[in-house]
Amino acid sequence: MDRRDFLRLLSYGCLAAAGLAPAKSRAGQAQERPIQFVFAQLKYRGGDWNPHALAVGPLMEELMQRTSVEAAPARREIALTDPDLFSHPFLYMSGKYEFEPFTGEEIDILRRFLSYGGFLLVDDALGQPGYGFDQSLRREMKRIFPDKDFTRLPSGHPAMRSYYLLRSIGGVRIVRPYVEGINIGSSTPVVYCQNDLGGAWERDQLGNWINPCTPGGEPQRRDAFHLGINLILYAMTENYKDDLIHVPFIQRRLAR
Fold it and tell me: Measured between alpha carbons, how far is 181 from 193 in angstroms, rounded to an integer?
């Protein structure tokens, strides 16, 4: 499914939620199939690739509640050498500690993935710039794109307004009040947050939040969920806000 097909179905779902969709097709006509988003998380060697094992479920619940996207309830754990990697337009990488360098084959695969339409959200669960996970991540990204550097994403970037109009960046802690990205042409296939988004998303099996968000409390957690939703939609549509004339339902959502 290409991005425009996804856009068309997403738009229809928003219209339906607002009671603005056209009547259902006559019996016997083909119906639109629901889209199922799969949250793919990268497994790598060394460090801690899975610091928040219970983070994905709450984010998928919020994604389905707030948008028309159907999401698989369980994440897909995937290695760079897995042949199914290119079936997932969205890839999440998290960690706390320094990890082993990627092999030459893995570097080539990830470069192709990111150059041909794949998206990588990187989430630093430690939040210590220049150490541990941050140090290893920047080293590996420089191997993948030697002529590219991380730059601060402006507030007007499509990823910052793909569903919510983001005015602040959340997480368990505020290490950076912004996210960084690597740009290739007009696209940003890598977005990096050092505020520990997964820690803010994570609930225990009784539904309680596992980690407090400091210093901003629950508004800071809300911002972490909003960023996660925005980046998923950006990964699936990329130019969502530039291409779509917004329906009133979406405009009301953005005003909240």
Answer: 9
CB 158 within 8 A of CB 183: no
Distance between CA atoms of residues 108 and 76, nearest Å: 22
Residue with tokens 């080293």: 139
Q: Spell out the domain ranges in the chain.
A: 3-21+32-183+194-255
Give bridge partners of residue 212 from the DSSP assignment.
none
Give 199-230 pLDDT, tens digit per residue: 999 999 999 999 999 999 999 999 999 999 99
Q: Where are the strands (E) in the chain, listed by range? A: 36-37, 40-42, 70-71, 76-78, 90-95, 119-124, 151-152, 180-184, 187-193
Around 75, how many Cα atoms within 13 Å sit in the side-chain half-sphere? 21
Q: Residue for token digits 């910052």?
A: 160
- 3-21+32-183+194-255: CATH topology is Rossmann fold (3.40.50)
DSSP annotation of 19 reads T
Out of 44-48, 206-210, 223-227, 235-239, least confident range: 235-239
Q: Indicate whether 52 pLDDT > 90.
A: yes
Say which amino acid occupies 102: F
**96-143 pLDDT, tens per residue?**
999 999 999 999 999 999 999 999 999 999 999 999 999 999 999 999
Mean pLDDT of 11-25: 40
